[in-house]
From TrEMBL:
Database matches in SUPFAM superfamilies: FAD/NAD(P)-binding domain
Pfam families linked: FAD_binding_3 (PF01494)
This protein's UniProt keywords: Monooxygenase, Oxidoreductase
Organism encoding this protein: Promicromonospora aerolata
Name this protein carries in UniProt: FAD-dependent monooxygenase
GO molecular function list: monooxygenase activity
């Protein structure tokens, strides 16, 4: 059986790994010229962590993870307003969590299929017919399975399921991420997640190694249109937020080196059609607000491969995957919209104060689980779902 996967990101590579495990002939293409080096820190836990463990990837996952000791908020003068020992978060999810840069997670998955699958960068799927898949490099492949794992703005979704505007739910925010080198900023944020305690906009810092600092930004705007010059927009939007922010913005790389996008969810009526399926953000982006997109991408890919293995035909396996996975993802999307957004990027001083208080009481025994559980509701495990 042959599979063509569009997208060598987290979901696509996880699926490639699992299909190869089940003896599929796997071809993966990615539009980018090579692996994306820029990135942001990911908290990887929940069903994706469980699936990665089942795939035997946990030891390498822990090896590539970045240690985080503390999580804190700072005010405009750089003073800590609240700090929480990061192990409290880990304890709340029974230690089944790592913080890892997105490129490192992708690297781990890519290494896991190295030499086992055909992986082509700088290549896209241009046409999907009833029998074959036509690639931009001129290759025509017979395929029993075609998967769109090509992210929020999925090409396969547009090609097979319809235009993006019908599926994309803009959450009223835009986000950016980049890495820069500044030994002084690094010194202040090394080993910690440091977030600015601000209304309607936020910057998060994480000290990587060798003076490198990863930051992500998020700000509210009713206008979904992406700016022509993201760097100029960031410098304007995040001006006057204290010294750390000023230094980060001063070292912001040129616009084409920044990750920049809308904060959005994908809500599309169908993820599967005959032998074509969507996984990860292409099917069901939950947004960075949910903090679980990568986890759901790995878990969904794993479940898809396992349901195909159990089914008597590809369309049956795909429909089964969609039926089991949809309610899980819908729950995470709802929680992100209804509960987490205001908590993550507050619009009111009262929320900001309540959040500060919430993190303080989190230090009391038992309350850590309640707080983490209410922000990131524990869904059913992938094993319970039939993987
Ligand atoms: C700032 C930020 C913080 C986040 N924090 C977390 C977190 O803490 N925990 C968590 O679990 N998740 C987090 N996420 C979400 C997570 O990064 C995504 O959900 C995850 O990367 C989705 O994986 P994916 O493989 O589905 O898509 P992507 O990672 O977007 O990969 C898609 C791949 O498809 C390729 N591609 C795109 N278009 C095409 C095309 N037309 N043809 C071929 N290839 C194409 C791209 O080059 C890319 O390699 C965060 C996101 C952001 C932005």
């Amino acid at each position: 059986m042959r599979a063509v996967i569009s997208g060598a990101g987290i979901a696509g590579l996880a699926l490639a790994n699992r299909l190869h495990h089940h003896d599929w002939d796997v071809h993966v293409v990615d539009r980018a010229p090579g692996p994306r080096a820029q990135g942001y820190m990911i908290d990887f836990f929940g069903p994706g962590f469980e699936a990665a463990t089942a795939m035997g990837l946990q030891p390498r996952l822990r090896e590539l993870a970045s240690p985080v000791q503390e999580f804190s908020y700072i005010d405009g003068r750089g003073r800590k307003t609240v700090s929480v020992d990061y192990s409290l978060f880990a304890k709340a999810v029974d230690g089944q969590i790592v913080s890892i840069m997105r490129p490192e997670l992708e690297r781990l998955l890519r290494e896991s299929v190295d030499g086992a699958v055909d992986l082509r960068y700088g290549t896209t799927v241009d046409r999907v017919t009833d029998d074959v898949v036509e690639l931009s490099d001129g290759t025509v492949l017979d395929a029993d399975l075609v998967v769109g794992a090509d992210g929020v703005h999925s090409g396969i979704r547009s090609l097979v399921f319809g235009p993006e505007r019908d599926d994309l739910r803009y959450l009223g925010m835009q986000t950016a991420a980049f890495v820069f080198t500044d030994p002084e900023v690094f010194e202040q944020v090394h080993g910690s997640f440091v977030l600015t305690e601000t209304l309607n906009r936020q910057i998060g810092f994480y000290g990587l190694d060798g003076g490198r600092v990863a930051i992500f930004t998020v700000f509210r705007t009713d206008d979904p249109a992406l700016p022509e010059d993201p760097r100029a927009t960031l410098r304007r939007t995040f001006a006057g937020m204290g010294e750390l922010a000023e230094r980060a913005l001063a070292q912001c790389p040129p616009s084409d080196e920044i990750y920049y996008d809308q904060v959005a969810q994908i809500d599309t009526p169908r993820w599967t059609d005959g032998r074509v399926a969507l996984v990860g953000d292409a099917a069901h982006a939950v947004s960075l607000i949910a903090g679980q997109g990568a986890s759901l991408g790995v878990a969904g890919a794993y479940l898809l491969a396992e349901r195909l293995q159990a089914a008597s035909s590809v369309p049956e396996g795909l429909a089964d995957y969609e039926q089991r996975w949809r309610p899980v993802v819908a729950g995470v999307q709802r929680a992100a919209r209804d509960r987490v957004t205001e908590w993550f990027v507050p619009t009111r001083m009262t929320t900001l104060m309540l959040r500060r208080w919430g993190f303080q009481v989190m230090k009391l025994p038992g309350l850590d689980r309640i707080l983490v559980g209410s922000l990131f509701p524990k869904g059913r495990s992938v094993a319970e779902l039939g993987a």
